[in-house]
């Protein structure tokens, strides 16, 4: 059974159509890469699946429940408890150390200081950046910041991680290292990952590629990039 479902999802920004009827399933523990050129609707699809944006038409399902009709408060609660999100620029808090940044979601969820710090240190270690625990983002490289941001996105042990161009700001080698860590840890945790990228190489890390063009998904199974014309 699918963990995430989109059924005929349509979404526009004013007169600009972003999604023209997207239908797809993502299984629990699956790592999917949503690929396609800039402007084809990848981010909009991710925001709809994560309950951040409401579709204009169609349905979003999570573990058998239709969530697009839920209130903002209910969707926000779902995001806090079940989902993790990671963006292109990790958006770490500049004034806080790596350990404090990673502990933050746990503190906000009511975990005690000591337990939150212990968990944060353990997640930094899993991402290979334990030595940066007491360092602030301004003194880190881009790759180090994204590893810390990945630790922060996973510290609450979400069932689904939504990642929007998580390596988009990094050079190729650093991007692949960050992605390698992210995918390894996600598999260890059996975390479902929806990875949005315009970089076709990144899709090589996923179990399956969902190729988009012009607000729709290609279901031919052939892929759009490099496929037959
Ligand atoms: P991608 O992630 O593939 O680059 P997006 O989902 O960001 O695609 O965008 C899909 C389309 O919607 C594009 O034409 C984009 O310009 C437009 N769009 C996205 N966000 C907004 C917005 N906030 N306001 C207006 N148009 C938007
Ligand atoms: P991405 O790299 O994820 O495709 P963009 O860089 O296209 O995102 O967009 C960054 C932000 O600007 C997003 O919040 C998006 O919704 C918004 N945006 C994108 N296209 C437009 C647009 N044509 N008009 C207004 N806002 C837009």
TrEMBL record:
Residues 4-225 form the ABC transporter domain. CDD domains: ABC_MJ0796_LolCDE_FtsE. It comes from the Bacteria. The keyword ATP-binding applies. GO terms for molecular function: ATP binding. Keywords: ATP-binding, Nucleotide-binding, Transport. Transmembrane segments: none annotated. This is ATP-binding cassette domain-containing protein. It comes from Micromonospora echinofusca.
């Amino acid at each position: 059974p699918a963990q995430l479902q989109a059924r005929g999802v349509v979404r526009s920004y004013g007169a600009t159509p972003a999604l023209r009827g997207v239908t797809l399933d993502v299984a629990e523990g699956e790592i999917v890469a949503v690929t396609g050129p800039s402007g084809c609707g990848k981010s909009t699809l991710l925001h709809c699946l994560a309950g951040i944006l409401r579709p204009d038409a169609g349905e979003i399902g999570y573990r058998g429940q239709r969530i697009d009709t839920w209130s903002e408060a209910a969707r926000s609660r779902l995001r806090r408890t079940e989902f993790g999100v990671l963006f292109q620029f990790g958006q770490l808090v500049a004034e806080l150390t790596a350990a404090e940044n990673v502990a933050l979601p746990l503190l906000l969820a009511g975990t005690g200081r000591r337990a939150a710090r212990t968990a944060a240190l353990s997640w930094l270690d899993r991402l290979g950046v334990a030595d940066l625990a007491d360092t602030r983002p301004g003194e880190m490289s881009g790759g180090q910041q994204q590893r810390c941001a990945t630790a922060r996105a996973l510290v609450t042990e979400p069932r689904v991680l939504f990642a929007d161009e998580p390596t988009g700001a990094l050079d190729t080698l650093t991007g692949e290292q960050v992605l390698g860590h992210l995918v390894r840890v996600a598999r260890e945790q059996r975390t479902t990952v929806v990875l949005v990228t315009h970089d076709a190489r990144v899709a090589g890390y996923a179990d399956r590629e969902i190729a988009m063009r012009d607000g729709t998904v290609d279901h031919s199974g052939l892929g759009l990039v490099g496929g037959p014309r």
